[in-house]
Amino acid sequence: MERARKGDWVQVHQVIFSPGERSPNIPEETKKVPLELRVKGWLAIPEAQVGEEAVIKTPAGRELEGRLVAVNPPFTHGFGKPVQELLEIGPELRALLREEGAK
Amino acid sequence: MKDMSYGAIMGRRNDIMKKAVGINYEEFSRGRFAFDYEEMMRKVGYTLDEIRSIQRETDVGETPLWEMKNLTRLARKLAPAGKGARIFIKDEAANPSGSFKARRASVSVYRAQQEGYKGVVSATSGNYGAAVASQAGKRNMDCIVVQEVFDSKGDGQPEILEKGRKCEAYGAEVLQLTVGPELFYTFLRVLEETGFFNASLYTPFGIAGVETLGYEVATELKEKEGRFPDKVLITHAGGGNLTGTARGLKKAGAENTEIVGVSVDLTGLHSASDYDFNRKSFTTGHTGFGVPFTTWPDRADVPLNAARSLRYMDRYLTVTQGQVFYATEALAQLEGLERGPAGNTSLAAALVLAGEMDRDEILVVQETEYTGAGKHPTAQLTFAREKGIEVRRGDPHEEKPGENVLIPRGPQDLFYKEMELDRLRKSYLKALQKQHPAPYSPEERDFLTEELKVDQEKLEELLKSI
């Protein structure tokens, strides 16, 4: 299990509302699941293991508690894969503007 | 110990808000629901000159206005003989945080500093978070951004993950939530616990901050081309971009410019649904915000929303997701500008609308935004395919949000749908009647004619028809 030491950049997780506590005016599929929070900051206790309760200090200077879920969490979003349907558009449009009468 | 339950926090909502925005909204109230909008904008806001100087302090605004010569050629090629307005675009991506939202944030953060708040909080999953974080950084203030990011499986919408990353890059604390309107509870709680300023999108400060955008579009075009824009296309969600821009155009004297709102059509997808959340390729500028905020602006996080789009809108158009991807590609390939989805929503409609206008007319798309990981069409379409959404080239008329994304087969496939403003006005009145039943006093009727941009006769007709 991954371990974090004080000052490491980590992510903690909290359940804000469990399914029974959710707002009444929301779709059924949303009511069935908890409202969860994830937040990153620097570990503010000497050490903690992933899965344990921890305290972090956030960039805004607040201390927040939560279950440690990641140490130095990576950015998971990217550019994805090239999309064939989009690759075709450029050459088509350029050809169209090259045609005579494109003024 | 203070009661922090949902009911208790929501019950303290008015007090929390009053402390967090420093505006006594009651003083503008004129009866049951009517209020003096212009008085609110005047008294709480700043003059255009003051806003321009506040924005200069933190490098906001004065972005370039470019003519899209190749896109104009393309629109003319598709148009009937003699038709095809010139298309211009305001490169708002040049703002410090990469979007026009810097204008909106600049005034809020300035105000927070003036009033002695230590930090600012914003509830937004959009570019506004990064804008507030960037402006707070420039003024050395703390910043917290509350976002709706994940579904219950922990899958983050790539564009919102990117927006969160950007907030962190500017030094903000980012609270990343799963789907649900209880985000507002978390937001209120943070405001109460920190005593920070609510940098809401919907205060008079935020809206006044956008007025410079409309003002610049009008004055720059007048200087370059000797005329005000004939139409300005504004990507529409919460209404602040449209309201602020329209007010700025008027302040510059562009009284006859047509104000056209444009949204991505996401009809059928529920904004609070854990399932639908990751089945869309656009996180803002869509009908899921555009329609409800137009018909009931006061659903916002402040008691009176300063963004009131029906007061200014002349037309409201929708385009499909596939068309916006097509326009994004066209802008990159023909104009050498790789930009994000917000402005390109209006651009998709512009390519069609320009073809209906005369050649000596000018149409302005009034924003671009930055693009990058998560925001890029390849990121969104890869994500859509992972979620089982069909992506193919096809007639965009057949696109069904949540099921497929149809990339137009060619520019001739581009189209827009016109949303009838009277339908929106009727929805507004229906929502109003639920809370404040008719009959309405003469003062209330005056207020409503301004809210809906209609005369007394038309108001009467609308009231009778619902």
Describe the structure.
The complex is a heterodimer of chains A (103) and B (466). By secondary structure, chain A is of the alpha+beta class. Chain A has one domain: Roll (SH3 type barrels). Chain A has helices at residues 28-31, 84-87, 89-98, and strands spanning 3-5, 9-17, 35-43, 47-49, 53-57, 63-71. In chain A, strand 5 (53-57) and strand 6 (63-71) form a beta hairpin. The longest helix of chain A has 10 residues, at 89-98. The model of chain A has no long low-confidence stretch (mean pLDDT 94). Chain B is an alpha/beta fold and 466 residues long. Among the domains of chain B are: 61-95 and 206-419, Rossmann fold (3-Layer(aba) Sandwich), CATH 3.40.50; 432-465, no CATH class. Chain B is built from 18 helices and 13 strands. In chain B, helix 6 crosses helix 7 (127-138) and helix 10 (204-225) packs across helix 11. The longest helix of chain B is centred in the middle third of the chain and has 22 residues, at 204-225. Classes of the chains: A alpha+beta (103), B alpha/beta (466). Chains A and B meet through strand 3 and helix 3 of A and helix 5, strand 4, helix 8, strand 5 and helix 9 of B.
- The end-to-end span of chain B amounts to 49 Å
The CATH class assignment of chain A is Mainly Beta
Mean pLDDT metric of chain A:
94
Task: Classify the helix fraction of chain B into a percent range.
Answer: 40-55%
- CATH-level-2 architecture of the domain at 61-95 and 206-419 in chain B: 3-Layer(aba) Sandwich
The stretches of 5 or more residues of chain B where confidence is low (pLDDT under 50) are none
**Topology order of chain A in helix (H) and strand (E) letters:** EEHEEEEHH
Described by strand count, sense and barrel closure, the largest sheet of chain A is: 4 strands, antiparallel, barrel
